[in-house]
Design a protein that fits this description.
Order of helices and strands of chain B: HHH
Number of strands of chain A: 2
Number of strands of chain B: 0
Order of helices and strands of chain A: EEHHHH
Structural class of chain B: mainly alpha
Oligomer: heterodimer
Radius of gyration of chain A: 23 Å
Number of domains of chain B: 1
Shape of chain B: rod-shaped
Helix content of chain A: over 70%
Distance between the termini of chain B: 11 Å
Number of helices of chain B: 3
Strand content of chain B: under 5%
Distance between the termini of chain A: 32 Å
Radius of gyration of chain B: 20 Å
Strand content of chain A: 5-15%
Helix content of chain B: over 70%
């Protein structure tokens, strides 16, 4: 992002003007696509992180309802449990990293948060389509 | 021919979508640079005993991050080159 001052030509205009990388990323819609993808992947990773523990909890509750009693619950973590925790931790790390990257990219290019920049971007696109 | 392709890529937004995907993928591989060695180290610590020769397993190894680093750099380079070609150089026509 820091590389600014490249000489570029605005689309449809013959004159050569100075544009920074952030301007090009914003005007070419590349930044908006990247932010949307990073947000979607962040949500996907967060969902994948909580899916394992949540499914265990749901299974436990369903068993409790089915047998009308307190199901067996092991006191220590098994090898599979630890593996699932490792996978969940990795997914959680990716979710935070994607979210942080989306925030950073949105802040650098649009000067706002990712959700706000995308909603403003959608408004602009809708207005352009109606014209 | 090349200029027509470039114009089509810009006007159809295919270029923007592809470039956005390339940059987002490169960020994913940047995350992998940190996640891969740590994940490998944790799994070796936890499950090293299941391997036939546990003493031969390496400890924390930064070499595991190299494939992710190479993918990150190549994707970033591809993204920058395509961005320059598509949006910083105007088609001649």
């Amino acid at each position: 992002m820091g590389v600014s001052g490249k000489r570029a030509t605005l689309p449809g205009i013959g004159a050569r003007v100075k544009r920074s990388w952030t301007d090009i990323l914003a005007e070419s819609h590349v930044a908006a696509v990247a932010i949307a993808l990073l947000l979607a992947w962040s949500l996907e990773a967060a969902f994948a992180a909580v899916w394992g523990p949540l499914s265990h909890l749901l299974g436990y509750l369903m068993t409790a309802v089915a047998i009308l009693d307190v199901p067996y619950f092991p006191r220590t973590l098994t090898t599979m449990d630890r593996l699932e925790l490792l996978v969940a931790g990795t997914e959680l790390f990716y979710a935070f990293f994607y979210l942080a990257a989306a925030c950073l990219l949105s802040g650098c290019v649009y000067g706002t948060g990712p959700i706000r920049s995308l909603s403003q971007y959608c408004t602009i696109l809708r207005g352009r389509n109606h014209d | 021919m090349i200029d027509r392709l470039k114009r089509a890529l810009i006007e159809s937004y295919v270029g923007a979508i592809a470039l956005g995907y390339v940059f987002a993928q490169s960020i994913g591989h940047l995350a992998g640079i940190f996640a891969t060695p740590i994940g490998g180290w944790i799994s070796r610590t936890e499950y090293g005993g299941l391997a036939p020769h546990p003493s031969a397993l390496p400890g924390f190894s930064l070499v595991e991050a190299v494939p992710e680093l190479v993918r990150f750099l190549l994707l970033l380079l591809l993204g920058v080159v395509l961005l320059r070609w598509l949006y910083m150089e105007q088609p001649k026509s």
